[in-house]
Amino acid sequence: MTPILDVSDLTCQFAGVTAVDDLSFTVDRGQIKAVIGPNGAGKSTLFNMIAGVTRPTTGTISFDGSRIDALPTFRRARLGIARTFQNLQVFQEMTVLENVMVGAHTTGRAGTMSAIFATLRQQAEERDLTETAHALLTRFGLADKAQLKAGALSFGQMKVLELARALASDPSLLLLDEPAAGLPHGEADRMGEIIVDLNRNGMTVLLVEHNMRMVMSLSHDILVLNNGRRIAEGDADTVRQHPEVLAAYLGESEDA
Ligand SMILES: Nc1ncnc2c1ncn2[C@@H]1O[C@H](COP(=O)(O)OP(=O)(O)OP(=O)(O)O)[C@@H](O)[C@H]1O
Ligand SMILES: [Mg+2]
Fold first, then answer.
1. Which atom of ligand 1 sits closest to the CA of residue 86?
2. Contacts made by residues 229-238, CB under 8 angstroms, sequence distance 24+
3. What are the boundaries of each domain within the chain?
4. Could you tell which of 11, 13, 17 is best to mutate to test the pocket of ligand 1, judged by most ligand atoms within 8 Å of the CB?
5. Which ligand minimizes its atom distance to the CA of 225?
6. Would you give the DSSP letter of residue 150?
7. In the CATH scheme, what is the code of domain 1-80+172-250+252-256?
8. Tens-digit pLDDT string for the chain (256 aa)
9. Quick one: CA dihedral 12, 18, 20, 21, positive or negative?
């Protein structure tokens, strides 16, 4: 079966820094695959290249069997790739509902002219988007907050809101960059449960996370990066005992 994501010989160089270095891996449909590694390992850069924010220096990225590495971000979103950000990107002045609808708009066919020429079809589309957004908020226990400004939410609620926004485009691949970062234990565990639940319902997840309890408990497969290169890949037990992984993390704690 064709992997949903196929990254091949991917390199990203910034001035003087090789952030991702000749990296190849695949993600199978239905997997939760984690990408871990010390700070600066290249995890977010990898996500940015998959989402289309950063152009690879060399290498290819295929989604569902087709090359996507030259496509703009919005085309990748329409194909079914959605993401959340390491640094929370919630529109604080917009309502909670509007924040989710921004995500749904990547699939709407009405385009930017909808505000000006609101045809019946476009209005119907808008109604669908509102319904979708409401359903997501209900699913994540934020329905009663729909009309509040997003800035009024707690940090944990904003992290969930960002996830709801990513889901609003009805993606088939979800890139989560540190969904549990900054969350207290209980909320991090709840985030883990949400991810598992999404996956049980068919979502493929690529997860970057420093919370090892979460990574080890819910990932089917783990890719470990250090200095932009793969140092290990496999299940939790394989990765946990890998000498290079231990060395990379020990090195990090000595630096800290
Ligand atoms: N836009 C940029 N310009 C220059 N260097 C960058 C840029 N983005 C990232 N880097 C560098 O690339 C390397 C990888 O950074 P990246 O953010 O991908 O790491 P990361 O694994 O996500 O780290 P963290 O766990 O801290 O989030 C780092 O050395 C970083 O300083
Ligand atoms: Mg990062």
1. 27
2. 229/21, 229/22, 229/23, 230/23, 230/24, 230/25, 231/37, 233/25
3. 1-80+172-250+252-256, 91-170
4. 17
5. 1
6. G
7. 3.40.50.300
8. 899 999 999 999 999 899 999 999 999 999 999 999 999 999 999 999 999 999 999 999 999 999 999 999 999 999 999 999 999 999 999 999 999 998 887 655 445 554 555 566 677 777 888 999 999 999 999 999 999 999 999 999 999 999 999 999 999 999 999 999 999 999 999 999 999 999 999 999 999 999 999 999 999 999 999 999 999 999 999 999 999 999 988 776 554 4
9. positive
| Predicted TM-score of the model (pTM) | 0.91
Strand 58-63 relative to strand 66-67: parallel, antiparallel, unpaired?
A: antiparallel
* SS3 state at 183: coil
Copy the structure tokens of residue 140: 């994540």
The CB-side HSE value for 35 (13 A sphere, CA atoms) comes to: 28
Ligand 1 atom having least distance to the Cα of 42: 18
Pocket of ligand 1 (CB under 6 A): 14, 17, 19, 37, 39-45, 86
